[in-house]
Amino acid sequence: MxxxxxxxxxxxxxxxxxxxxxxxxxxxxxxLGLDRFSPPxxxxxxxxxxxxxREAYFENPAYVPLVQRAYELWDALAADTGRTLRLATGxxxxxxxxxxxxxxxxxxxxxxxxxxxxLEPAEIARRFPALAPGPTDVAIxxxxxxxxxxxxxxAAHLEQAASAGAELVVDEPVLSWSADAGQVEVRTAAGRYRxxxxxxxxxxxxxxxxxxxxLPLVVQRQTLFWFRPxxxxxxxxxxxxxxxxxxxxxxxxxxxxxxxGDGVKIARHQEGETTDPDAxxxxxxxxxxxxxxxxxxxxxxxADGPLLEREVCLYTNTPDGHFVxxxxxxxxxxxxxxxxxxxxxxxxxxxxxVMADLVTxxxxxxxxxxxxxxxxxxxxxxxxxxxx
Length: 388
What we know:
alpha+beta; 9 helices; FAD/NAD(P)-binding domain; 8-stranded mixed β-sheet; 2 domains; globular; D-Amino Acid Oxidase, Chain A, domain 2
């Protein structure tokens, strides 16, 4: 049984944990990263080959400075590793002009003076002929939006973490942890590890790591589909088919990606069945694609071709849809991160930097009140703060 001491143990090496391990190791901290699987993997929330990155953030304008920093850090990581991590395609937020998506994206664009255009239905169809907007649809076009490649992003963060001296241990689930007198002990089947700090970046397994808090987190099974275009395949290439989110009904969204060599990826957002991360239904029968196909036939008719692939990923949702990034209310040595409600991957590079700030006692450059635990625990908000 091993018994080693570290500055920081990072539990979970997906999007958030890999970024935290990278930033902390680069600052000279002795880092141990642990994961129950071997990341990047398809068992959690960071698989599926592509993720959207966008600036005109309809969920809340407060996210915009954070995602702008994420752009900088993803590009720096790509330069450091020689990997392709991001593809700029531009992005469309499409829906009714008074819907949550369009009004929210427009508000973020105006508040933060982002480059954008408002497109009427005829202009959407002219520029992007694969799309068939209805007469009441408008779009917010943002030229900086695009695609992140999640498996490559995680591999790049882990590669840089290891190069900076982090010890990364995979296929070794954390069984339990305890904190006392300013120190944390993490137990696995292989040993016990002690550290000054623990970062819980366990995603869908966060409730398992934090049973005393009884956080109101819900894990959803989300299905992803790749279709071969039925016609006009050139209309789906990145130069003519950007990433998009479409509010096709009030409060309902589909999103999609251009043809990148494996079909056109389209999925429904936030409508998956509740699941247990250790008992997820991984099979996806053809019939599950039919409700989505009905929408595709109306809005993107030429995409309604053969179903090439399907996959499952997990959303770990908070009641308000915002992230969790805060210190444990009973154990200031423990930082809780990563329940991101299905829209967090794009921020991972910047949140890794923020986690490193919090652990090393540096004041983060961003307002993190939106991500505090107090809102989920029914307590007065203390705010997220660096530890001494």
